[in-house]
Amino acid sequence: MGVCPPLSKTKTYLKGGKRLSHYKTKVACLREPRTMKSGIGLLWMTIRIVLLGYERIAGNRISRGSPTFVAAWGFFFFSFLSLFPFFNYITKEILLLSLISGTIYSVSFSLYTYALGHEDASVIAPLYNLNAVFLVVLSAIFLGEQFSLKRLIGALLMIYGVSYLKKGDNIAISYKNIFKSKGAVAMILASSLMAVGRIIDRKITIDVSPIGYSVGIYLIISLYILLYGLVRKNKPVEYFNLVREKWLYLILGGICNAYSYVALLKAFNYFGVSVAEPLSMLSVFVTMFFAKVFLKEKIGVRVIAAVLLFFGSILIY
To answer: Where is the EamA domain (predicted)?
Structure first.
């Protein structure tokens, strides 16, 4: 933090004289750190938004043509590996807690990976954010949080926005198109389970390190998914081929997945949840841009869905 130079005394300060110039100097000094602080917070949020935006593109590349559990294992195991600077945060307590919520998250993120492999990324990204709707409902039921009229309007706005993802001649056909898509249905189920996982997190992880918990949960998720794959009789050669053929997307996807969360934790030092979570949903626009450029998807009116979901999230949070 730099030293603030004193303001020069001029005829402008006729009333109050020296005291006025001193007061203005103090205000000027206070503004600079506050501006810098907001700037750093916005930097962390920008990093989170970009990483989240590209995560779905990498996930799409990883999932296409690969068995679901093999792709999901690769996605989350490489996320775990990318957090190696924080391995020392893991404790026995964190691993035990991760075993509980990891059961839910492993199913949720397996569905998420399946969805990325069976539907456009520009459809999956907005549906991912529906977990906010499930979260406020479950929080009201299990945590006693208030479900206000504002939150209800926000939830309805987000649900309405979904109708633009696979637009039909009318709203009923639009929703029918959504439920005819296996990838879209998988993502809706994944979002609901993510909300359940968040509720469990709030109950059991109050006193543990957030970054340590994220390392632990990625490890447990990848182990659970590996177990699911072995039960489904996925062959070792399928895992080998995934790493050999898609190593670049595994690394990029792992970094984006893991460090988008690290960036969120950093942003919480500058913004509250009511600001950080809606801002995170701007990543949908980044995903749509990347999907159009890299995956050649037709975005069209899906942008309207992203806008409605974003404003709905502001009301919810």
So the answer is: 40-163, 182-316
Cite the DSSP H helix spans in the chain.
Answer: 17-63, 68-82, 92-118, 121-128, 131-142, 149-162, 171-180, 182-204, 210-231, 236-267, 273-280, 283-294, 302-316
CA nearest neighbour of 108 among 235, 239, 198: 198
- CA–CA separation, 163 and 152 (whole Å): 18
- Gyration radius of the chain over CA positions: 23
**CA 86/CA 211 separation, integer angstroms:** 7
CB contact set of 252 (below 8 Å; sequence gap of 6+): 54, 58
- Write down the pLDDT at residue 278: 83
Q: Report pLDDT for 26.
A: 41
Say what the pLDDT of residue 33 is: 60
Residues 6+ apart with CB under 8 A from 62: 71, 74, 75, 113, 116, 242, 246, 249, 250, 253
Residue type, 287: T
Q: pLDDT at position 19, please?
A: 45
Asked whether 313 and 154 are in contact (CB, 8 A), the reply is yes
Q: At 243, give phi and psi (nearest 5°).
A: -65, -40
> How far is the C-alpha of 83 from the C-alpha of 255, rounded, in Å?
8
Residues in the chain with pLDDT values less than 50 = 1-32
